[in-house]
Amino acid sequence: MKKLLVAALGAACAFGLVHAPSSTGPSLAGTSLGWVGEARADAPAAVNTEIMVMHATQEAAGSIDPRIGNMPQLTKPPFSAYNAYKLLDKKVVAVERGKTAAYALPNGRTLQVSVEPQPNKLYKVSASISRPEGGAFLKLLEVTAAPNEPFFVAGQTYGKGSLVVAVTIRP
Predict the structure, then answer these.
(1) Over the stretch 123-155, which tens digit does the pLDDT of each residue have?
(2) How far apart are CA 125 and CA 167, in angstroms?
(3) How far apart are CA 68 and CA 53, in angstroms?
(4) Which are the contacts of 2, defined by CB distance < 8 A and separation ≥ 6?
(5) DSSP designation for 25
């Protein structure tokens, strides 16, 4: 049963099915920039992107690490399949427009993120995860994200649980 929950959680998150409610606008997947022509006049050269890595497990006395902060998504399906979340790392990375930022995950894999501001004050965020030996674990996930609303990439087995990565644009 637990493996089925992990698989469902991983599939839902990896394919962008689980993300913040306000980022459910029209998808820009499959487009180069989501809009044609000119850059947004107020678009910054780099976008602050918070990456939060959590370890989700099933514990007798479950709890959410207070350093994670208020993240109600963790108490709802599919994340409620786990009742304990521990913060492993949290940092803000300045992702330059047109470039990809790499972030080493605790399981040896690498998260790569790129961010493009959109004309409607949303952001097109692309994420992928590669294996240490090369090749993709998660080929490419593209979502349209609102500022300060996390989206999640999850489902990688880690320890006695799963890694959950929350990516949040912090303009």
Answers:
(1) 999 999 998 887 767 788 999 999 999 999 988
(2) 9
(3) 9
(4) 58, 81
(5) S
Q: How far apart are CA 10 and CA 57, in angstroms?
A: 14
Cα dihedral sign for 115, 96, 108, 138? positive
Q: Which two tokens stand for residue 83?
A: 């009742």
3-state SS, residue 21: helix
Decide if 83 contacts 58 (C-beta within 8 A): yes
Take residue 25 and report the two structure tokens written for it.
């606008």
What's the rounded Cα separation, in Å, for the pair 116 and 110?
20
Residue in this structure with the two tokens 């790499």, named with its chain if needed: 102
Say yes or no to pLDDT of 98 above 80: yes
Structure tokens at 162: 């799963």
pLDDT at 12 over 80: no
DSSP 8-state secondary structure symbol assigned to residue 160: T
